[in-house]
Amino acid sequence: MEWSYEKAGVNIDAGNEAAQRIRRHLQATRNLLVRGGEGGFGGLFAFPAGDYKKPVLVASTDGVGTKLKVAFAMNKHDTVGRDLVNHCVNDILVQGAVPLFFLDYIGTGKVEPAVIEEIVSGMAAACREAGCVLLGGETAEMPGFYQEGEYDLVGTIVGVVEEEKLLPKAEMAEGDLVYGLASSGLHTNGYTLARRIFFEVLQKQPGAYMPELGRSVGEELLIPHRSYLPVLREVIHYGLVKGLAHLTGGGFVDNIPRILPENRRAVVKKDSWPVPPVFQIIQEAGKIPETEMYRTFNMGIGMICIVDPEEEDEFKKKMEAAGEEPYRLGYLEKGDKAVVFCS
Fold first, then answer.
1. What is the pLDDT of residue 4?
2. Is the N or C terminus of the chain more exposed, i.e. has fewer CB atoms within 10 Å?
3. CB-based contacts of 307: which residues, under 8 Å, 6+ apart?
4. CA distance 59 to 160
5. Which segments of the chain belong to CATH 3.30.1330.10?
6. CATH 3.30.1330.10 fits 12-165, yes or no
7. pTM score, two decimals?
8. How far apart are CA 204 and CA 141, in angstroms?
9. CATH match of 177-342 with 3.90.650.10
């Protein structure tokens, strides 16, 4: 038998077709800082040095996790691309940074050009909304490594912040306010547990409609991770927040303390915002303790803002102008950095 790379499972022609399909999506995110064309060994980006006095680059890498399993089951792949970009945008936003460019990695057992294009179309749309360039990436075909019909998705983002505007600020005081911004759903965390509850405990199919959700299970679980850049850009620019916490893996319990000084803790009133039905369903069906819920899920709050009481009115005005209704969740007090819940 005469062997070839294709007979071994790698189809170079399919990879080339996928590259052709995604080119227009990459081109749609280009701006005047991009140098060169697509397809090079590295992406070229001219840093806007003249716009900053003391610029600090901020970089982050993340994935979508087992939310991808829902995308496979629903055969819907554009939303996970948005998830990836928006998650990364939020992760550098909490340090005050705005995104410059984004790179992706797609690993799969078999390159399906239409699927790759669908994934990248979602990434490109999210990049355009964030004013960020989808500069390049890698699609790796690895038969025998991934199960048929599955892929993994990873992204890296690079952004910039003026050094004097870096977050969090050190001077968080007793009495500073804790505000929360609504999530769009589970975002990209807790899916290993959520999938088990919906698909095993409740024995629901991904396409099963649930009146409590107002949509099918799969549609609920594929709601894209929300980007907070549009509503926080002005607030950050004018220095109206002392700190931001992106409620991802670890929920309230692990993420809020990451931005607190050693001598401050956050007091959060649990009934100060509406908890979406999806979290209530998961908790009741799985008999999950409340402490576990607040450490696994965002519970309807995707971003935490620490606000000086003297800046509260201006903060709320900027939020209202951006179309956002922030929830006042609590305050900071003296104590070891932690989150304390009250009724």
1. 66
2. N
3. 176, 177, 178, 179, 240, 241, 242, 315
4. 9
5. 12-165
6. yes
7. 0.94
8. 32
9. yes
Summarised one tens digit per residue, pLDDT across range 224-272 is: 999 999 999 999 999 999 999 999 999 999 999 999 999 999 999 999 9
| pLDDT for position 238 | 95
Distances (CA, A) of 281 to 167, 219, 235, 299: 35, 15, 34, 12
pLDDT digits (tens, 9 = 90+) for 74-111: 999 999 999 999 999 999 999 999 999 999 999 999 99
> Which H or E element spans position 83?
helix 78-93
Question: For 128-193, where are the E strands, in sequence order?
Answer: 133-141, 151-162, 177-182
Domain limits, CATH 3.90.650.10, in the chain = 177-342
Residue 21: the pLDDT is: 77
Token readout for 42 is 């590295």
Whether residue 168 is preceded by a cis peptide bond, meaning omega within 30 degrees of 0, is yes
Does the structure show a pLDDT above 80 at 219? Answer: yes
pLDDT score for 38: 76
Using CA atoms, how far residue 333 sits from 167, 245, 267, in Å, is 20, 17, 7
Whole-angstrom CA distances from 314 to 299, 300, 308, 319, 329 are: 27, 24, 10, 9, 17
C-alpha count within 13 angstroms, C-beta hemisphere, residue 149 = 8
DSSP 240-298: --SEEEE--TTHHHHHGGGGS-TTEEEEEETTSSPPPHHHHHHHHHHT--HHHHHHHS-
